Amino acid sequence: MKRTPLTFGVAVGVTVLGLTGCVSADRSASSAGQAEASSAGCPWDVDDSVTGPVRVGYQILPSGDLVVKDQSILESCMPGADITWTQYASGGDVVQAFGSNSVDIGVVGSSPTVKALSAPLDLDVQVVWIQDVIGDAEALVAKGADISDVAGLEGARIGVPFSSTAHFSLLAALRNAGLDPNSDVEVINLAPDAILGAWKGDQIDAAYIWDPTLSEILADGEQLVSGKDVSEAGAPTFDFSVATTSFIEANPAFMEQWTRAQDWAVQLIEDDPAGAAESIAVQMGSDTDTVEGQLAGTTYLAAADQESEYFGGPLGPVLEDTARFLSEEGEIAGVRSVDEYAGALYVDAISAVAGS
Fold this sequence. Notes:
The protein has helices at 64-70, 73-77, 91-99, 110-117, 165-176, 192-200, 213-217, 227-232, 245-250, 252-271, 273-284, 288-296, 303-311, 315-328, 338-342, 348-354; strands at residues 52-58, 81-87, 105-109, 125-133, 138-143, 157-160, 186-189, 206-210, 221-226, 238-244. By secondary structure, it is α/β, with parallel strands linked by helices. The protein has 2 domains: 52-134 and 237-354, Periplasmic binding protein-like II (D-Maltodextrin-Binding Protein, domain 2), CATH 3.40.190.10; 138-232, Periplasmic binding protein-like II (D-Maltodextrin-Binding Protein, domain 2, 3-Layer(aba) Sandwich). Strand 6 (157-160), helix 5 (165-176) and strand 7 form a beta-alpha-beta unit. Helix 1 packs across helix 10 (252-271). The radius of gyration is 19 Å and the shape is globular. Mean pLDDT is 88; it is low at 1-28 and 30-39.
């Protein structure tokens, strides 16, 4: 079976997963739109001017976004807003939600973000925040000990969620090892939960995935490369937050408050990783020790660093480089100019928070 590109409008794996179950006696991962305000309240002055509905898409990833959700920061700081959180299985699913006008702002990996910005989708969305620079939080794992490097995967069946950063990294890793993803291996499109089932049922030989599935398959698997390795080889990946241009333009006050919340979460991860891990573990249905290890293997950037190191220059070319790779793989119909990708970066809120 050859790998096929994502067809927009057709579900990839499981489009929307149910919310994770309760993992604490007094706090759960239920919709934050219905959650009680955090005991700490808003860490800065509340903005009562923000009103109206906001549809937030999130993923089960070790990120500041889950800290914000768990501690109800948006709800506490913007009590007049009606905020609804919806969980998605992958960035490809969030892109489809943008295409169907089902979400206003959501977490999307760099690869599906480029797909959203490029033909044939050409969605009118913008990158508003870097959730993380992916390192060891995503990895390629082979089943058993017979395969010790990527080149040894020739003829293997590899599971990965298509149109995700893991998919992009897998293709890059295979190419770097001299393997053709279209002929030397069988790349199978599987949602994260389906990967675990296929792994346990011996239906795949390897998988490129993130936690919590990653930790589970590592119990009887061999890690070959991680996102950090692929990044150092010239194919960096990120988790972004992306919003529609129409929503950004209509809600500048919300965007500043939302960005302030994300910046606050990054500071918490840096200053109190155990406390941040507790919040993230609740949302992921994991344990704090596992999450602390994930946080250590991922880079999180404050607003000031994002403004100076990425939004002010390199991020546009990174998106263009990703687009060129995806175009060569037949994943998109063409590459836009670097100026067009750079023009899809919304920096106003980041600049406001970085300068405050």
